[in-house]
Specification:
The complex is a heterodimer of chains A (about 80) and B (about 375). By secondary structure, chain A is α+β, with helices and mostly antiparallel strands. In chain A, about 30% of the residues lie in helices and about 30% in strands. Chain A has helices at about 15-30, 55-65, and strands at about 5-10, 35, 45-50, 70-75. A four-stranded antiparallel sheet of chain A has the order 2-3-1-4, with helices on one face. The model of chain A has no long low-confidence stretch (mean pLDDT about 95). A seven-stranded mixed sheet of chain B has the order 2-8-7-6-5-3-4, sandwiched between helices. Chain B has about 375 residues and is α/β, with parallel strands linked by helices. In chain B, β6, α7 (about 185-190) and β7 (about 190-195) form a beta-alpha-beta unit. Chain B has helices at about 15-25, 35-55, 70-80, 95-110, 130-135, 155-165, 185-190, 250-265, 270-285, 315-325, 340-345, 365-380; strands at about 1-5, 65-70, 90, 115, 140-145, 170-175, 190-195, 210, 290-295, 305-310, 330, 355. The chains are: A alpha+beta (about 80), B alpha/beta (about 375). The interface of A and B includes residues 14, 22, 44, 45 and 47 of A. The structure holds pyridoxal-5'-phosphate. Pyridoxal-5'-phosphate binds near residues 98 and 148 of chain B.
Chain lengths: ~80, ~375
C-alpha cells in the first residue's frame, strides 16, 4: 500500500469552484494542488484541493476572505 | 473573396483564435473529468474564459456564466425555463427566429400569451407603446440588442429600466453586439444575457452562452454527465454545472478565450469605430444610387454595422448571386431568419441584400462593393 499522509482536503460542488480556489490559492501563495476527489469523500468524480495539514489555517483564511464556495473540508489520510 | 457577411458569422478571425483552437486540440483533455494535466489544462482554460465573459458583461460571479453551443440554445433554455402557462411576454418585431420560435412554441403548447411591439417606418421599436402593452400577468420582455436585418439598435437601457419598474424579467439577445458594444448586465438591469461566440465575439462556431443574474434559476435543459456528484440521481443544482450537462466545447472555448483577449488588446471602441467607418462609407455612397432602397434608421449614431438594401424590384437572391459570381463578394439575401422585420418592410417575396461589415475589411473592399452595386443597379433597371 502507498504510504499516506494526513492532509487537509477541500471538496467542491463544481469544477468552477475548484478552479476559483486554485486561482485564489496561487495568487495568495497558499500551497497545495488539485487532485481527483479521494474515494473516502465520494466514490463519484470530481476534483479536490489537497494540502499539508500544517497549512490548514492558510486555507481556511483564504476560503473566508475570498468568499469561496465549496462543498466540505476534511482532515484525511491520503 | 470580399467577405461582407459578418452578421452571419465573422469570417476573418484574429490569427490567435485559430492558433488557440489548434493548441487546444493538441493539449486539452476533458474539463472536470479527472485530475490529470490534460484535464486540468482544459478546466483552467474554460474557467479563464468564464472570467473574461463575466468581466465583459458586468457579471460579478463567473459561476453565473454558462457555456452553450450558441445563442439559439441559450434563448431556448431561457424562454423554456422562465415562462409558463398564464404568463404574458412582450417581444419585438425586430427579433430573430431564435427568439420568436421558442416564444411561439410556448404560446402554442403552454398557453403563454405574447405581444409583439411593432416598429416605426425605419424599423425602430415603438417604445411609446410599452406601457400600453403591459398586462397584469406580464412576466418579462425578450428582445435583441440590434436587428440582424437593419442594424438598428434597441435601447436596452430604456427597456431595462421599464422592466425594473414593473418587476419584469429582462432577457437580451446580444448576438449582433457582444464584444463590440458595451453591455453591463447589472447597470442595464438585464436578467439573462444570451450570446453567440462566432459573430462579433470573433470566436469559433459552436461557442456561446448565457449569463444569469444570481436571483434567477433556470431548470436544467439537459441532465447527464457533470464530472461531479456522480452517484446522485439528479443533476447538480450548483451553477454553472446545473446548466452544463455533457462535455463542453473546450476547444472552441479556447478559441473564444483568445478572441476575447484580442478584443481587449484591440479595444472595443477601436473595433466599433472601424466597423462604423466601413458601414458609413458604404451607406453614404450607395444611398446616392437612384434605384436603391435602404432599410433601417441611419440617424442612430450607434448601430450594428449592417446596410440592407434592394435594387429596384430585383429579387435579393439574384443580386446576391451576381455579387458572388461576378465580383466574389459575399452578402446575404433572403429573410435573415427575421420574418417579422421583412413583413414590416413588405420584403417577404423580394427579400433584401444584407451587407455587414467587419473590423478586418479594407477601404478598398468597400469601394469595390460600392462599384459592384452601382454596376448592377445600372444594368438591371
Ligand atoms: C439577432 C440574432 N439572434 C440570434 C441569432 C442566432 O445565433 P446562433 O445561430 O449563433 O444561435 C442570430 C444569428 O443568426 C442573430 O442575428
Amino acid at each position: 500500500m502507498r504510504k499516506k499522509e494526513l492532509c487537509f482536503v477541500v471538496a467542491f460542488h463544481t469544477t468552477t469552484e475548484a478552479l476559483a480556489l486554485e486561482e485564489a490559492a496561487h495568487q495568495a501563495g497558499v500551497v497545495g494542488r488539485l487532485i481527483p476527489i479521494p474515494t473516502q469523500i465520494t466514490a463519484g468524480c470530481g476534483l479536490a484541493w489537497k494540502m499539508p495539514i500544517t497549512a490548514r489555517a492558510d486555507m481556511e483564511q483564504l476560503l473566508q476572505q475570498n468568499h469561496l464556495t465549496y462543498d466540505a473540508s476534511y482532515e484525511l489520510w491520503v | 473573396m470580399i467577405y461582407l457577411d459578418s452578421a452571419a458569422t465573422s469570417f476573418h478571425k484574429p490569427e490567435a483564435v485559430a492558433d488557440a483552437v489548434y493548441n487546444a486540440i493538441r493539449h486539452m483533455g476533458n474539463s472536470g473529468r479527472g485530475g490529470h494535466t490534460a484535464s486540468l489544462s482544459a478546466a483552467r482554460v474554460i474557467y479563464g474564459t468564464r472570467k473574461k465573459i463575466a468581466n465583459l458583461f458586468g457579471v460579478s460571479d463567473p459561476a453565473q456564466v454558462v457555456f452553450t453551443a450558441n445563442s439559439t440554445q441559450s434563448l431556448n433554455m431561457t424562454i423554456q425555463g422562465l415562462f409558463h402557462a398564464g404568463d404574458h411576454v412582450i417581444t419585438t418585431a425586430m427579433e430573430h427566429n431564435s427568439v420568436l420560435r421558442p416564444l411561439y412554441r410556448k404560446e402554442q403548447q403552454e398557453g403563454v400569451s405574447l405581444s409583439i411591439l411593432p416598429c416605426d417606418a425605419c424599423g425602430t421599436v415603438r417604445y411609446d407603446l410599452l406601457e400600453e402593452y403591459l398586462q397584469p400577468n406580464t412576466k418579462g420582455i425578450v428582445c435583441t440588442h440590434a436587428s440582424n436585418v437593419t442594424g438598428n439598435m434597441v435601447d436596452i437601457v430604456r427597456i431595462g429600466a421599464f422592466c425594473k419598474k414593473h418587476n419584469l424579467y429582462f432577457v437580451v439577445d446580444a448576438s449582433q453586439t457582444a464584444g463590440v458594444f458595451s453591455i453591463d448586465m447589472e447597470q442595464m438591469g438585464i436578467d439573462v444575457l444570451c450570446f453567440t461566440g462566432h459573430k462579433s465575439l470573433m470566436g469559433p462556431q459552436g461557442t456561446g452562452g448565457l449569463c444569469l443574474q444570481k436571483e434567477i434559476t433556470l431548470p436544467c435543459f439537459c441532465v447527464g454527465g457533470s464530472g461531479v456528484q456522480s452517484y446522485r440521481k439528479i443533476h447538480p443544482e450548483e451553477m454553472p454545472t446545473h446548466l452544463e450537462a455533457g462535455t463542453l466545447n473546450g476547444h472552441g472555448i479556447a478559441g473564444l478565450s483568445a478572441a476575447l483577449d484580442w478584443i481587449t488588446e484591440t479595444g472595443m471602441d477601436n473595433i466599433r469605430a472601424q466597423e462604423q467607418k466601413h458601414m458609413r462609407m458604404f451607406y453614404e455612397a450607395v444611398r446616392q444610387i437612384p434605384q436603391i432602397k435602404i432599410y433601417g434608421d441611419f440617424s442612430q449614431s450607434e448601430r450594428a454595422p449592417i446596410v440592407t438594401l434592394n435594387i429596384g424590384d430585383n429579387p435579393a437572391e439574384e443580386v446576391c448571386d451576381a455579387l458572388a459570381e461576378r465580383y466574389d463578394i459575399a452578402t446575404r439575401g433572403g429573410a435573415h431568419c427575421a420574418p417579422l422585420m421583412h413583413q414590416h418592410f413588405q420584403t417577404e417575396t423580394q427579400g433584401a441584400v444584407r451587407f455587414s461589415f467587419s473590423y478586418f475589411n479594407t477601404e478598398e473592399e468597400i469601394q469595390t462593393a460600392i462599384q459592384a452595386v452601382r454596376e448592377i443597379a445600372e444594368e438591371w433597371t
